[in-house]
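Researcher: Can you fold this with adenosine-3'-5'-diphosphate in place?
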Amino acid sequence: MVASTGDGDMAEPLVASSLPLETRFPPFHLRQHGGFWFPETLLPGIVAVRTRFAPRPSDVFLASFPKSGTTWLKALAFATAHRADHPPHAPDHPLRHRNPHDCVEFLEVSYALDPTADAFAALPSPRVIATHLPYPLLPERFTAEGAGCKVVYVCRDPKDAFVSAWLFARKMAAAAAAGAANDDEPWPVPPKPFGMEEAFELFCDGQCPGGPQGPHVSSYWEASRRWPEKVLFLQYEEMLQDPVDNVRKLAEFMGCAFSMEEEAAGVARDVVDLCSIDALKNVEANKRGSRKYVKNEAFFRKGVAGDWSNHMTPAMAARLDGIVEDALQGSGFAFAAAESA
Ligand code: A3P
């Protein structure tokens, strides 16, 4: 697989097969690019994003390390940005009929499906687009001074992100096994049991989709300190504690703050209720719908802080905390002290 970056700083074509390979984190083969691990199938999309994506000043990117609250942030940002056309209490609101990942698509996934097309060109402004790319791999035209585009990043305690990622990978591996049994399209990583210890070692080494987490988080944290008007840094645990306040913050940052009339009518609360995990779990499309690699219901598990303590030993927790702390050292950001559920 060869993909040309076309960038001044990365003028060499990217030859995926020459990049470091990791085959143990199911269901995708991972390749290391720019210091981070990605599903191999996404590499052409990651390259195409840098050369083909045409940003608009009103664009908002929702960025995250996988399993850090992306689905929730997509729902909240979509509902907030489009509340004039789709009031959150409306029975026909898109989020009552569609999965949040169908309302806000991933940039690199869309380009990976067709590197020559721009599925986002047809979207009306302001566009809300998601990505799992770390800040240094965002399109330069998007992050350039004066581009006007904004980024909202959500981070999550590494231990909960790990447990969520491990359980999600197991679900995908199970779907792979079912697909293999049905003689569907063969999966890159053959179905296999994916034990917690193996997953933990890989996650600690950063050999997981989007990994390593520490540098991913610090890249956005540092950007948010440097350009606070361009990059909003949110924490999943704080969103759980005070979702309404975080939605207000999100609306203000996206340039669509709630008016006094909206505040009086409780619109921010309506957005939060529409996007609560319980409400989304009950949407038919999320209960029964499916995507290529996983059922939609897999995106909505517990949705709490501290579930790691039901799966990890204190020693594992201390080790992972230490690794992420080391990666964040000097950035000025640290995760809050560990909580258990
Ligand atoms: P758990 O597996 O710990 O329950 P992502 O969306 O980045 O894939 O992250 C998935 C995590 O977000 C899962 O965590 C999932 O349950 C949780 N989640 C999904 N929707 C949510 C919502 N509306 N509110 C809070 N958490 C949510």
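Model: Folded with adenosine-3'-5'-diphosphate in place. The longest strand covers residues 150-155.
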